[in-house]
Structure formats: structure tokens, C-alpha cells
Amino acid sequence: MSRTLRLLPVAVVVALAVSLSLPTGRAQAAEGPAWGLVASTCSESSVAANAAVGVAVVEVEAYWDRFMPTGAGAVNADYVADLRARVTRCLDAGLRVVIGPGTQYPPAWVRALPGSKLLDQRGKSPTNGALDTVFSASVRAAQADYLKRLVAALPASRIEAFRVGTSAEGEMGFPGPNEAGDGFLQSWWAFSPAAQQGTGLAPGTPRSPMPGWIPGQRTWQGQTVSAAAARNWFLWYSRSLAYAVKGQADALRAAGFAGQIHLPSPGKGVLPADLTTATTALLNGTGDRDGSLGRGLNYVDQFAVLAGAVPRLVVDITGVDDASAVLARAQSPAQDACRTGDATAVATAGTPVAAWSSMRFTRAWASRAGLPAVGENPGPPAAQTGGTSSSDSLAEQVRRAPDYARGCGLTTLLVAFEWALDDPDYGVTRDDYRAAVLG
């Protein structure tokens, strides 16, 4: 998506201990979440406007293609100086800052690296421009070098968090349904030479457990493929995302950053019952209710894997009052808001998790993994951000999101986006946000 419209959603600062029982509504701790904005410019005028309404946290975007536009090691000194000055301005004003590193905006020279292309089972690359940040050693090495330089260029010891992601939106996941642009609704983005044969494979990432097997095929190398083998293949596929996330976190740590690592987690991901249905059908498309299988979003497993591998990891729920919340709110009884006991109920047979909002489901699995959570709303539906035609308006998102954040025990809520609150066309202002926070 366009960087002028889909700026990275990020959130910050969290408690280190999280109970398996979630607070309900205003039973949240008295101090409540920290309130902030996504995609702050940190201009003098924005700093003043944010301070006037009590904004405490801002997310600031960096862009890889602006930072290193011409080649490895070639840093744009003017851009770096401007970025550092803006971040420092916000910090000096007492705002807490999260950095969206903009790894989803790779420069042209990275796109030209050998093995940089994501390939699906039909040999197609995604139309959204996503590169292979998961399996490609060359892309991962360039990315790690950029993150090292970004940390060195900023006052990193004062920064709350960096976020990590693998998708063209800067979130966790492979490209989504029909992003190969060839009319097929499902792609599996693990058919490069690196993923299949291990040629140019990123360190710490295993190659396919069944090289050459395409999901849906009933045999592999002359043998019948079982449901268990299909599940094992999917776990390899989805865990590859976790290994890529860990690689970015490791690069940040190696560069000296000691703060939090935020993992933007879109949607609900794969439901356990749907995974059983899908793998019984050998991943032929059955049971994939929203494209989460092809995107590799298996939070049930990934959060647990990452919790033990990435210290100070924080789940960023990017769908606070998204379209799924609108649907869940219409259920009887309503299934949108988090409730005490969700972290137990979500793993209990018979719980109607398919009716839950993505926010509620994701929060429950983060809690089970012992991971704290922050969140953000999807943004204006008409602006081609995370919002859709089924989402609440931005004004309604701003009204509802603070109570959702309290009820789900989020320690930070960031509203997307600063620029939208400055645009009268969206019908909502910083004062509206403040009023919603104060309740």
C-alpha cells in the first residue's frame, strides 16, 4: 500500500508481567493505558498539539529506501539528520517514542539482490511488492545491516521500542489472498530456491520438510501425504515467520538496542479447529476462512515460540475496533470485548472463538504465552489503511477504542493516524480522542 496512506501502526510501553486472567472494562488498573498516536511527524506544531491534549506516546516512521537509497553502506546523511532531529524533538518534549523502521520499504538495490523475490507454488511474486524477508539470506543480511545503522543513528537508549514485521504493511505475515494477481485466491509463499532447496537460505531458518510438495497434493515422492505431514508442513511455513521476526530482533540487540520489541499482529489468525479441517484436507484451501493460512498467521503457536526466543517481546494488536469487532458486537451475547477468563476459555473445546473479535482472540493467546499487549485501531476506512468498508468510521473507532483497550488490559493504545486527526475530512480531532480517553 502507499506509504502516504498505510503508515506503520505501532504501540509502546508495557508491563512485564501479565496474568492469564484479563481485566474487564474499567476494572483495569487505575492508571489505565498510555495514550498516543501513530505516524507522528514530530514537527514543532505536532509536538505542541499533542502536548495540549495529553498525548504520551508517539510512533515515528523511518524509511529504508530513504535511509540507504543507493546501495549497501551508502547512507543518506540529510535524511538521517532530519529523522534524528525529529525523534529527538519528541523525546525532549517528554514524549515516549516507538520507531517503525520501515523495513517494508526496501530500496531498489535490495530488490535487485539475488534471491530477493518471494515465490508462490505457481512461481508468481506478490503484486504488493513484498520481498522475501523470511527465507532469503541476502535480503535478511541487508535488512540486519540497515537496522544496525538505524539504531546507531538514533538516540536508541531513550527509545521505548522498535517494531518488527515481515509483510508489505510492516506486520507479521506473508502476502494475503490473491496477491499473486493471477486469479487464484490462495498462495503459499515458500517456493523460492532458498525455501525449497536451501540455496541462499537465511541462517536459522530450515528449508521445506517436503521439498517440491505443493499443498493440496495427495502424494509426495510416491508416498501418500497424511494429515499429520500436512500439519507439519504448515508449522514449518508459519514458524518461518517467527524465525524471521527473531532475526530482526537479534539484529536490533546486536546493535545495542535494549528496549522492547513490538510485533504487529493483524487479524485473528488461524483458528485451531480450522487448522484441523485444513490439514485433514491437505491444505487444499478448505477451512481457510479469511486467508490466514496462506499468510502464515498461526498465533496459537507463534506467540509461544517467540515468547521463549525474543526477550521483551510485546504483541501489538493492530485491529482494536476493526471490522471483526463490528460483527462480534452484533452477536447475542456480544463477543467483541475481552472478558475475564478469556485466556482459559480460548483454549477450551466448545468456546465459540469464531464469533470473537480478532482483538479478543489475539489478546487471549498473547496472554497464554505470557506476552504483554498494546494496540491500535485500524484507521480511516476510506483511506486504504487497515480499515475496510465494514469497519466503524474513524470517529467511531476513536470513541470505542479506549474502552476496548482498557477491557483487554492493553497498556498502550495508539490512534491511527496523526495526520487523520489533522484532516477535517475525517471528522475527528485530538480533542475528540481526549474526550474518549477521559470517558
Protein model, in words:
By secondary structure, this protein is α/β, with parallel strands linked by helices. The protein has a single domain, classed as Alpha-Beta Barrel (TIM Barrel), CATH 3.20.20.80. Helix content is 35%, strand content 9%. The chain is built from 16 helices and ten strands. It has helices spanning 44-52, 64-67, 77-92, 108-111, 137-153, 193-197, 227-254, 272-280, 292-295, 299-307, 323-329, 342-345, 358-368, 394-407, 418-421, 430-438, and strands spanning 34-37, 57-61, 96-100, 161-163, 219-220, 223-224, 260-265, 313-317, 373-376, 412-415. The strands form two sheets. An eight-stranded parallel beta barrel has the order 1-2-3-4-7-8-9-10, surrounded by five helices. α7 (227-254) packs across α8 (272-280), α10 (299-307) runs parallel beside α13 and α14 packs parallel to α16. It comes from Actinomycetospora atypica. InterPro entries: GH.
Give the overall shape: globular
Number of distinct beta strands: 10
Helix content: 25-40%
| Number of discrete helical segments | 16
For the biggest sheet, the summary is:
8 strands, parallel, barrel
CATH superfamily: Glycosidases
Number of domains: 1
Helix and strand string, N-terminal first? EHEHHEHHEHEEHEHHHEHHHEHEHH
CATH topology: TIM Barrel
- The name of the CATH architecture is Alpha-Beta Barrel
Instruction: Order the strands across the largest sheet as they lie in space.
Output: 1-2-3-4-7-8-9-10
Structural class of the helices, strands and pairings? alpha/beta
State the distance separating the first and last CA atoms. 34 Å
Work out the radius of gyration.
21 Å
Text of the CATH class: Alpha Beta
Strand content: 5-15%
Indicate the mean pLDDT.
92
- The unreliable regions are 1-30
Biased composition (Polar residues): 385-394
Region (Disordered): 371-398
Organism: Actinomycetospora atypica
Protein name: Glycoside hydrolase family 42 N-terminal domain-containing protein
